[in-house]
């Protein structure tokens, strides 16, 4: 299939990374045990990315309303990015199914990011997420999520991870989709790789047609007029 409008194709490619976000139905906060519930922040969109050639991972979570941190009503709400690494044994408990890593934020005064290694029983603590209105951005080093076997600071295994998000506040919960770790981390473009040159048989952009047509037709018109005058 050939694209007749290259400008439209370029626009589609420009917004493709934005289309990779996983959406969640607004207003689907429910009781964690399946009944009706309210109180937990309403997650409506989540996007996970691999940054800096595998040195870090970032999740951008969008909620239905601005986040109040610290949470001063009842127990603080909790946001968990639940991850399954295929190289590590998975566990299931409570609201979590077949996961082995949790990247957690509790809405307390300091609200640091805590990474919990479930099978190993370990934990790491990192700087707090960035919270701006309805958006929470969580970023952690890639090496704590997937093995850095070459000791280069990068983790090539990040692409094999699967993740989901669980938001809890007392009895109220909101799960990304079905709450199973099925989402993938997307990769940012490598700035060291130059884009491929256009193919010789690629269609000419429609914006180039007017000058090309003018450059061909105008000389032909002048030549024809000269021939017409000479015959008269």
**End-to-end separation:** 51 Å
Structural class: alpha+beta
What is the number of strand segments? 15
Largest sheet: 7 strands, antiparallel
Secondary structure: helix percent: 10-25%
Order of helices and strands: HEEEEEEEEEEEEEEEH
Radius of gyration over all CA atoms, rounded: 27 Å
Question: Which residues form runs of ≥5 with pLDDT under 50?
Answer: 1-19, 204-214
The coarse silhouette is globular
Rounded mean pLDDT is 79
Placed side by side, the strands forming the largest sheet appear as 2-14-13-5-8-9-10
Could you explain how this protein is built, in words?
The protein has one domain (20-187). It is globular and about 45 Å long. The strands form 3 sheets. The chain has a 7-stranded antiparallel β-sheet, with no helix packed on it. Strands 1, 3, 4, 11, 12 and 15 form a 6-stranded mixed β-sheet that branches. Strands 6-7 form a two-stranded antiparallel sheet. Strand 8 (101-106) and strand 9 form a beta hairpin. The chain has helices at 6-15, 209-231; strands spanning 22-23, 30-31, 43-51, 56-63, 78-84, 91-93, 96-99, 101-106, 113-117, 122-126, 130-132, 135-141, 162-169, 172-175, 186-187. It is built from 2 helices and 15 strands.
Descriptors for this entry?
232 residues, alpha+beta, seven-stranded antiparallel beta sheet, 2 helices
Provide a brief overview of the structure.
The chain is an alpha+beta fold.
List the helices and strands and how they pair.
Elements lengths: L5 H10 L6 E2 L6 E2 L11 E9 L4 E8 L14 E7 L6 E3 L2 E4 L1 E6 L6 E5 L4 E5 L3 E3 L2 E7 L20 E8 L2 E4 L10 E2 L21 H23 L1
Parallel strand pairs: 3-15
Antiparallel strand pairs: 1-3, 2-14, 3-4, 4-12, 5-8, 5-13, 6-7, 8-9, 9-10, 11-12, 13-14
């Amino acid at each position: 299939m050939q694209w007749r409008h290259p400008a439209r194709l370029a626009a589609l490619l420009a917004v493709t990374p934005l289309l990779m976000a996983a959406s969640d139905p607004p207003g689907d906060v429910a009781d964690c045990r399946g009944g009706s519930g309210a109180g937990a922040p309403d997650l409506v969109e989540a996007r996970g990315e691999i940054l800096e050639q595998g040195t870090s991972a970032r999740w951008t979570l969008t909620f239905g309303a601005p986040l109040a941190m610290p949470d001063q009503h009842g127990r603080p709400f909790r946001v968990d990015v639940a991850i399954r690494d295929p190289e590590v044994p998975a566990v299931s408990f409570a609201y979590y199914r077949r996961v082995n890593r949790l990247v957690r934020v509790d809405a307390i005064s300091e609200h640091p990011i805590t990474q919990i290694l479930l099978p190993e029983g370990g934990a790491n603590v990192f700087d707090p997420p960035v919270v701006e209105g309805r958006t929470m951005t969580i970023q952690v080093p890639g090496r704590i999520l997937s093995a850095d076997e070459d000791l280069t600071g990068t983790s090539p295994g990040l692409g094999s991870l699967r993740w989901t998000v669980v938001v809890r506040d007392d009895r109220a919960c909101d799960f990304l989709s079905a709450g199973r770790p099925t989402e993938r981390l997307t990769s940012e473009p490598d700035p060291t790789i130059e884009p491929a040159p256009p193919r010789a048989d690629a269609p000419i952009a429609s914006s180039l047609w007017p000058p090309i047509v003018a450059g061909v037709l105008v000389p032909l018109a002048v030549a024809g007029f000269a021939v017409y005058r000479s015959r008269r």
